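Design request, tokens follow.
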């Protein structure tokens, strides 16, 4: 009884029967109530969409290969590790694209990682890093070596940077500039990619109006500062310092019509006021040129894939 009286003085509540009934959570508690299914849904919700799509695609390819080559109708997670190891070894060596050509070495590794993610999500007994999958991992390694000898893995689809002459041509032809909404949007995208190192799709798509700020240094020189929200490689999932930008990216004024600060100011001068909130999408849908009758060149809605 002395222990119960002591706890009552701490909690100011009746805890008699605490060991044979549920404890009621105070209604004013700040913590959110989450069910086990809610935890799984939350984890899935934070998974990158492209990762989820590639996982589903690669698992589907393996499942199709099993049906066509082994007449095995089981789900991958239902196949015992020893048997799956043999299947994967053959899969890595024999799988081809639909046109019959070889995959890139990195693509095969990505397939392996997709299968591993799928097995982990399915609470499989083993991971593909376990000793039991040694043979299939060696088969993958050997296949990568063979493909490299054939000249694969040289990133034939990698983008080529614009050289100074090509950049000058873009400025002179009006592709880069501030003559209309399209050229201005493309110029901002181009300059931010160069000066802030933003990825062509991922980081630009996430960019919000409040992420870019005009500031002045101690010598009264204007500059743009980028406050990042995370990227493909810095998504907040890691606890070490490599997951964070060590410094904020800055872009200083250089004067003239090609100055990044000038281009940015011109860009925001044509935005509707309702799209100038910190959380507003940075890139906006453009008003067709023949409909522009005011300084506003943009609709207050995000730029989409087809708009």
């Amino acid at each position: 009884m002395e222990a119960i009286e002591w706890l009552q003085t701490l909690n100011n509540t009746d805890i008699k029967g605490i060991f044979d009934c549920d404890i009621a959570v105070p209604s004013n508690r700040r913590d959110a109530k989450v069910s086990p299914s809610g935890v799984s849904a939350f984890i899935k919700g934070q998974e990158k969409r492209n990762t989820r799509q590639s996982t589903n695609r690669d698992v589907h390819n393996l499942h199709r290969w099993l049906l066509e080559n082994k007449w095995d109708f089981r789900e991958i997670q239902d196949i015992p590790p020893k048997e799956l190891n043999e299947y994967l070894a053959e899969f890595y060596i024999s799988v081809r694209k639909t046109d019959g050509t070889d995959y890139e070495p990195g693509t095969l590794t990505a397939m392996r990682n997709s299968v591993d993610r799928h097995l982990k999500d399915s609470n499989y007994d083993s991971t593909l890093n376990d000793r039991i999958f040694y043979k299939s991992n060696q088969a993958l390694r050997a296949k990568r070596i063979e493909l490299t000898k054939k000249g694969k893995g040289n990133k034939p689809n990698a983008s080529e940077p614009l050289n100074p002459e090509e950049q000058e041509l873009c400025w002179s032809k009006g592709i880069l500039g501030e003559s209309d909404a399209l050229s201005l949007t493309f110029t901002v995208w181009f300059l931010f990619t160069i000066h802030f190192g933003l990825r062509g799709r991922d980081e630009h798509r996430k960019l919000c109006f409040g992420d870019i700020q005009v500031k002045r240094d101690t010598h009264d020189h204007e500059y743009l500062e980028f406050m990042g929200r995370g990227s493909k490689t810095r998504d907040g999932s890691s606890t070490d310092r490599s997951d964070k930008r060590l410094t904020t990216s800055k872009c200083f004024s250089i004067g003239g019509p090609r100055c990044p600060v000038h281009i940015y100011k011109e860009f925001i001068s044509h935005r509707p006021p309702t799209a100038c909130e910190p959380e507003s999408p940075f890139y906006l849908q453009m008003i067709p040129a023949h409909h522009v009758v005011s300084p506003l060149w943009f609709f207050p809605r995000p730029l989409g894939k087809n708009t």
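Comment from the thread starter after seeing the answer: thanks! The first strand starts at residue 212 and ends at 216.
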